[in-house]
Amino acid sequence: MVRWLLSAIKGKYDFSHGFKGGGFSYEQRFSLVNVKLKWAKDGALDSVVAGERDLKAACILVSIICSVPRCCLPVYHLSRCRGQLGLPHDLKISTFMRRYPTVFDEFHVLDSGGTSVPWFRLTTDALNLHHEELSLVQQYQGDIVDRLRKLLMLTKDRTLPLQTVDQLRWDMGLPYDYHHSLIPYFPELFILVRLPDDRVGVTLQSWDDSLAMSQLEKNAAFQQRNESIRDGTLAFPIGFTRGFGLKRKCIEWLEEWQRLPYTSPYSDASNLDPRTDVSEKRIVGVFHELLHLTILKKTERQNVSNLRKPLALPQKFTKVFERHPGIFYISKKSDTQTVVLREAYDRNQLMKKHPLADIRERYSRMMRKGLLDRSKGLYKQHTGASGTHDLLSNVGGRYNSGFKSEGESDNNLLSEYESDDETYTSH
User: Annotated region Disordered: where (predicted)?
Assistant: First the structure.
């Protein structure tokens, strides 16, 4: 159970009212107060993250398979994409896909040497769900485009490398092939550019003031917190798991920290001293907004590691996640660290669901059913012999003649763009 401090201890320790001044807060403006809050396990939010790695990998594989005309690929082609999947290095792609027979259907095709090669296609149910997903993406294209625009508006040059966007595309609900299916259709908004490090990036052509309002500012306006808006001292919703326990020193610091000026993540913050709590509050605001741009209000910590320079953040900027466990929860499930926005969840339930979140839940249920049925022996390995000759003539020939993957194009910068098979780090 989450104990929300905005209501639970309002009055005694009111973290939400406007800045009134005072000695303690005055000092915070010019120094970073050394207060450490402990990490505490949150089983409800851990359950939100559990299974996410397999779900993400499966959905990416679905998109890759459906990117080719016949919607089927040999396993050796899929193995080339494993860098995008985030699976353990010792786990074979074929082994992973066989775990979920309700999603992936395996069959075999003889190569030119007579060797049987495993191929994978989608089951009928998975293909139908994928088509539903594509329809939703089309229906909510405006929302998805605005998410990408706002992400670029958070950066100082309105520009990000495609590899950095790739790392966030799943979380933000961007199509897998957004650089082909989305960006080229909005030339008035986006342009591909050559970056100084010779990578390919995407730039937002122009600023849009109507999008330059953070979710925290929207919430304050909706709740008619006029005094806080006028004074520029917006406070973040804060909550902790039951039994967390805050020392009085931490409560006093947090109360005063909430009263500090709020700097919009869309405004120029170059005048802020990075050694101050005011600057730290701006950093918290940037990631608070970034997580609100995601579908499930969470992302892996490593996904934001490349954003220091584009977002004009100081060194060790991700330390704010540890210093503010009432705003962010760091889950250590699935051998990684995932940052979850606490306010977005009521225990393990997302309070405001994007339609794409429902699609992902249905994929997850489909995968769980396949895993359970397979454990009961309901699925037997088969070669898919029926239709093999047709596939040899219609698919094999086309495949062997060479088709281009989603990351390739002959006519523009995308011809030199390689997808995120490796992790790019900030400099």
Answer: 402-427
Residues 65, 269: Cα–Cα separation, whole Å: 44
pTM score:
0.83
* Nearest residue to 258 (alpha-carbon basis) of 238, 241, 240: 238
**Token reading at 137:** 């993406």
CA distance 152 to 18: 30
Q: How far apart are CA 180 and CA 406, in angstroms?
A: 8
Q: In angstroms, rounded to a whole number, what is the distance separating the alpha carbons of residues 49 and 181?
A: 29
- Measured between alpha carbons, how far is 407 from 113 in angstroms, rounded to an integer? 29
Phi/psi for 159 (5° steps) reads -140, 140
Q: Which residues have a Cβ under 8 Å from the Cβ of 174 and sit 6 or more positions away?
A: 144, 147, 148, 165, 168, 182
Helix 141-153 / helix 124-139 crossing angle, nearest 10 deg: 70
pLDDT band at 314 (very low <50, low <70, confident <90, very high): confident
